[in-house]
């Protein structure tokens, strides 16, 4: 409301609030950071030449002792994507470094800072320079991978959406980024059976985005046609066809795909526990005789 109706008064308000960012009281730092973070989503900060000041203030809060302040600071930096999208490119390297630092936050037991970093980075990506992203691409992809299986659905959803968005920048990193896609493929396919609809939606998006980078036209077409948001999925039939394409294009990956699936035999989600042995069954069904010899039957039979 202040951005809309009290623009000319904001520079003075911001000036008077700035000292509170260094207050000894957490509540004052939280309130000021929250106000600045929300203000950054409005173009008024650009019009009033406040953007740089407020952006530096948010960056300066990244080492704050309060988790909530660190989280809100990242939210503010991410909000620049809607408040001043044309300025994101100019400050791209700095913003990207802030998001990566947020994902690596060590003093964040509930991963609130990491969650905000992933959500904010997804907002910023379309406005960042290709070269800025490419230098950090692998680090980010590897860092977010463990969140795919988080017990917190928001972390699963945000990390998977971010992974899908990163594939837009994989040009020039073809082979190396393909490896990251293959590392996450089993997880993304199994989480199509996730108990949370928002995570299923994220997996559909990520797989559609990954398809063109996989070098298998049949698989890419399947992801585009069967994983549309508005389309219900016959999971068993879909996985049967996916495994057929996988074994035609990547037969040497059989053992790796099987061992990743074995990990999910102990999943806490019953539908994913059920999907993993079915996935293995279809892989073995479609592999040719030469590659069939690769399969180590002992862990399969014991289910471990």
Number of strands: 0
Instruction: Count up the domains.
Output: 2
* Radius of gyration, in angstroms, nearest whole number: 22 Å
Task: Determine the oligomeric state from the structure.
Answer: single chain
Series of H and E elements: HHHHHHHHHHHHHHHHHHH
Strand content: under 5%
DSSP helix fraction: 55-70%
Average residue-wise pLDDT: 90
The main sheet comes to: none
Outline type = elongated
Taking the alpha carbons of the first and last residues, their distance comes to 58 Å
Number of continuous helical runs: 19
Domain Maestro/Maestro-like HEAT-repeats: 56-302
GO cellular component, one term: cytoplasm
Organism: Psilopogon haemacephalus
Protein name: MROH1 protein
What labels describe this entry?
elongated; mainly alpha; ARM-like; Leucine-rich Repeat Variant; MROH1 protein; 304 residues; 2 domains; 0% strand
Would you write up a description of this structure?
There is one protein chain. This protein has 304 residues and is an all-alpha fold. It has helices at residues 2-5, 10-17, 26-39, 44-47, 51-60, 67-83, 85-88, 92-103, 112-124, 130-144, 153-166, 174-190, 197-210, 217-226, 235-249, 254-263, 270-286, 289-292, 297-302. The chain has two domains: 1-128, Alpha Horseshoe (Leucine-rich Repeat Variant), CATH 1.25.10.10; 164-303, no CATH class. The chain starts with a helix and ends with a helix. Helices cover 68% and strands 0% of the residues.
